[in-house]
Automatic annotation (TrEMBL):
PROSITE patterns registered for this protein in UniProt: CYTC (PS51007)
Keyword presence, Acetylation: no
PANTHER family recorded: CBB3-TYPE CYTOCHROME C OXIDASE SUBUNIT FIXP (PTHR33751), CYTOCHROME C4 (PTHR33751:SF9)
InterPro entries in the cross-refs: Cyt_c-like_dom, Cyt_c-like_dom_sf, Cytochrome_c_Oxidase_Subunit
Protein name as it appears in the record: Cytochrome c domain-containing protein
One Pfam family cited in the UniProt record for this chain: Cytochrom_C
Keyword Plastid annotated: no
Amino acid sequence: MKRRVRNHYRMAFVFMVAVGAAIVDYSSGANAQAARAGAVKKDGLQAVYATAVEIAEGKRIAQASCVRCHGLDGISTVKGVPHLAGQRPAYLYLELRAYQSGARGKKVMDGAAEFLSDDALVKVAAYYASLDPAQPVAASGAKPVPAKPGPVQAGKADAAACAGCHGEGGISKTPGMPNLVALDPKYLVAAMKGYKSGQRKHDVMQSLLAAVSDADMNNLALYYALQKPARAQTPVTGDQAAGKAAAAACAGCHGKQGVSTNPDIPSLAGQDAQYLATALQAYKDGSRGDESMKGLAAALDDRVMKDMAAFYAAQPPQPPNVRRPLTTAEWAKKCDRCHGVNGNSVAPFLPALASQRVDYLEKVLRDYRARVRKSSAMAAMSDALTEADVENLAAYYARQKARAVVFVPVPGK
């Protein structure tokens, strides 16, 4: 792989297959020419071109300024502090400059990078880049971090407690029990919160949801939204044709065939007929508090309610417009586009993630998501990450084998 740099040199990036230090194959003539051209000044590539003498000087600087947190071998034993060994040299240099300027916050690195010269930053970056990378979590003897279930998996596990009443996959087989499939997550979460708070009157549901967190409700709702829609497998009484005529007034909110396009309003297609009729009666008598529904239901008698329920129960439900979240493996493929296969970056400016500390990776992802660390690309990526995604991605990269890289300056044409 070749990339042209501003001094008209190209660098070939080669993975070291055998265990060894990340060293720089260096030509003094090439470095002198680059320095004279001034093409690599303060862009981090000086660290790529560092000589053995400069790397040794970087070790001396690291002993005085960096070892307390990062260790002389670049393997951190401090929570939240990254390993530096084998990290990409230009990236290390640029990060040190960011800390020095205050762009990354100065408190953490006060007394370390703040008073170092630019030449010292180059040398210490080159030194740590030259070291053997950390071993992955599984190989280092550290306890592996178990992957947390994704939201759909977590929702499926929690839904086991709901299946007795609402059916497998949210398809009811019990008259009076609503289908949970084909409902938008936003509506279903609001309904669960209504039962939990007592706004919706149902003692059993209030008791069952009392200990359920908002995150668990979100997972449940997402799981049901992603299941294949089907009509409730319960008996239907009532005149569907009469119900269709009566339901014309409901189409504006619930859709012509009972398929809502508003995430706040439930779809009625395929819903259990007895549940629908009971819900209408609850709106009519005020036991469900919704003024708009109370006004609409006030003029309906029991016969009309059953007919409308029969009509909606017969309609084919449709899946809501909900995207399945990415798995950890799918997220890692996206991350690997910049950070290299299994987190082994081949670019001097982009950090390697393989074998990095789990707690540090988690912190960085959260900081990008909160805009504490500034990067438009990382902000866009991290915005879509759930907390489980953050923890699983960090654990994934911590388990990957880190590979040192040789950066070789090659004369350009």
